[in-house]
Amino acid sequence: METSNHVPLVSIAIDIPKGAVFRFENYLMAHENFMELVQHGWSIPTHQTDMAKRLTSKFKNLRRVVKAWQSHLSNLKENIRNVKLILQFLCMIEEFRDLTLMERNFKAVLEDKLLFLLRQQKIYRKQHCYIRWVKEGDVGTNFFHAHATIKHRRNLITCLEDSDGTSHTTHQSKAIILWEAYKDRLGTTEFNSMLLDLSSLLQNSEDLS
């Protein structure tokens, strides 16, 4: 319509479907049902005679099963928030009265569950931080330059004082102070005598053939 005065009678919206990318999370291996799921996905028949094709089909089946199972799992962050909320509620009740035996057992189960979820979260963050560092570790981002600047400031000696108490800020004067300090610590050697007879070791040879 931008280049013509004709109005189209039919408008078609083209929406190209995109396949969901499957990314395996390492924290799933700590789940209690993970090994049974892997065994189930690996034991699905493939009906392939070639060994390489059979192996590829088994991996595809395993990926499909794990992907479907992962989509039905609840969010790790929400689980941690919900468990913390219930634990906080039980702690508030405990301030006013003693918990019953059932409530104490429930609190102990929740504490164990929270530790398990936090371990999973640690594995999840470790995996994703490593991926981000590999992807953006050498990129000239503000985060990278800030770390480099802080490290440079830590390694920079702005001022040194000599034995007289005079402050020196130039690079040459600071280098001289460090050189003299290390030389005084290490000390100097004095030449006494030569143990090797150089005149017997180094003799002129007339015949160079």
Automatic annotation (TrEMBL):
<protein>
    <submittedName>
        <fullName>Uncharacterized protein</fullName>
    </submittedName>
</protein>
